[in-house]
Design brief:
Elements: E1 2-6, H1 24-38, E2 42-46, H2 55-65, E3 72-75, H3 82-88, E4 101-103, E5 109-112, H4 127-138, E6 145-148, H5 159-162, H6 169-177, E7 182-187, E8 194-198, E9 201-205, E10 212-213, E11 224-225, E12 230-237, E13 241-248, H7 261-268
Helix pairs in contact: 4-6
Length: about 270
């Protein structure tokens, strides 16, 4: 199966530009078209659905992502409003409490966590949600599983991002470490594709489908940059496990076959 992960759209209505410049509505529309062309089995949207978290923005956001042909599942990020997200996407979310849930209908089990702490840029799961995760993973120890959250449970080396990571990452690591069926822990928030070893598996953050965080290691000040928007593609192969790719959104020139005659002639002349 193929799971697409779209993250951090920071949606704002069409007539509003984020930072006075970025057309996040246009970015989202292009991301949806890109995903529809790829035909994934499911789409995970790992938080910061809107930038300002108001009801009007969620309605407009929902109208665009409703064009996705694949079933999609949302997580809350620090820019989101938990209750507005719950009301707008009631079909896949619990009716009360944290926005955490499990999806069991695919070859790869999906577990979504809620790291939102209202009014704070950093995230936290808390003891009750960690206990829920431990119990939920324990229900299906033989099912390969992808665990998704918004905030990264690891340091990135980018200073301003590391101040807003998951505050109880050690607690998450303790739970994940007890369940070897977890193929990947995926997150958003940092607007970059980053990987590291985590609790016996791999943790991986997704780039934004809009703007990226500038890669300046040790940076104290938060800066954004118009690097290409992208999504992650997580391809599950029972014979080989989970393989992840970065898929850039946009047109970047023509494609060609490595076997084209002019390519082979060029190689032969070297």
């Amino acid at each position: 199966m193929l799971i697409a992960q779209m993250s951090d759209p920071h949606f704002m209505p069409e007539d509003v530009r984020l930072f006075g410049r970025l057309d996040t509505a246009g970015y989202l529309e292009r991301a949806v078209a890109h995903l529809n062309a790829l035909a994934p089995d499911a789409v995970l949207i790992t938080g910061d659905l809107t930038n300002d978290g108001d009801a009007q923005a969620y309605a407009a956001f929902a109208a665009i992502v409703a064009r996705l042909r694949a079933p999609f599942f949302v997580l809350a990020g620090n820019h989101d409003d938990c209750e507005l997200v719950r009301a707008r996407f009631a079909g896949c979310l619990p009716g009360s409490g944290p926005l955490c849930y499990a999806i069991d209908r695919f070859a790869l089990r999906l577990i979504a966590l809620d790291t939102l702490v209202s009014g704070e840029p950093w995230g936290r799961l808390g003891p009750e949600q960690l206990a829920w995760l431990d119990a939920t993973l324990g229900e299906a120890p033989d099912r390969p599983t992808l665990v998704a959250l918004h905030h990264p449970p690891f340091r990135t080396g980018i200073g301003h991002l590391d101040r807003s990571m998951l505050r109880d990452a050690d607690g998450l690591a303790a739970v994940i470490g007890r369940h070897p069926q977890v193929e990947r822990v995926v997150c958003g928030h940092v607007h970059r594709a980053i990987q590291c070893r985590f609790a016996g598996t791999l943790a991986q953050s997704a780039p934004s489908c809009a703007h990226q965080a500038e890669l300046v290691l040790g940076a104290a000040e938060a800066t954004w940059i118009c690097e290409p928007p992208a999504v992650l593609l997580h391809w599950w192969d029972p014979a080989g496990g989970l393989v992840s790719h970065v898929s850039m959104i946009g047109e970047y020139g023509p494609a060609g076959r490595f076997s084209d005659p002019h390519v082979l002639a060029s190689q032969a002349s070297r």
